[in-house]
Design a protein that fits this description.
- With 141 residues, the protein is mainly α.
- It folds into two domains: 93 residues, no CATH class; 48 residues.
- 63% of the residues lie in helices and 0% in strands.
- The longest helix is centred in the C-terminal third of the chain and has 32 residues.
- The two termini are 45 Å apart.
């Protein structure tokens, strides 16, 4: 985001490319991160309901779907410029965003630990039939 003018160095198509549909809150969250807007779940869901209730909701083709998503993100962006949200940033997003980010990091860490433990068990099991030289070689790895 460029300071002062509120513009970013991406076109709308590139910015919204990662949003699959109106229910894709992860994609919307990434757009909010780039734009440095807070992701507020209730506000986003309100925008989605309004779009779906209007004649602007059209998912009949990929082009219409992309246009509908851009319109929804535009509506959300305009809401984030209101006085109530103007001084908020992505760091002010709903607590759920932080919980999800932390949970994803924790899952990755647990996956790495599980793979390391599995490897350790395989090495231990293989020690039964390995020579002393082979065991010391594996333990160094």
């Amino acid at each position: 985001m460029y300071p002062g003018d509120g513009k970013i160095d991406l076109c709308r198509s590139c910015l919204t490319k990662g949003v699959e549909d109106l229910e894709d809150w992860r994609g919307v969250r990434e757009v909010c991160k780039v734009m440095d807007f807070p992701y507020l779940d209730k506000v986003w869901k309100g925008v989605v309901v309004k779009i779906k209730d209007s004649n602007r909701y059209n998912m009949s083709s990929e082009a219409k779907k992309r246009e509908t998503i851009r319109k929804a993100l535009g509506d959300y962006s305009r809401l984030m410029k209101l006085i109530a949200y103007r001084n908020k940033t992505y760091r002010d997003s709903d607590a759920i965003v932080t919980l999800i980010d932390n949970a994803a990091d924790e899952v990755k860490k647990l996956e790495v630990e599980a793979k390391n433990e599995e490897l350790r068990l395989v090495i231990e099991a293989s020690h039964i039939s390995l020579s002393v030289e082979d065991r010391s070689f594996l333990m160094q790895k």
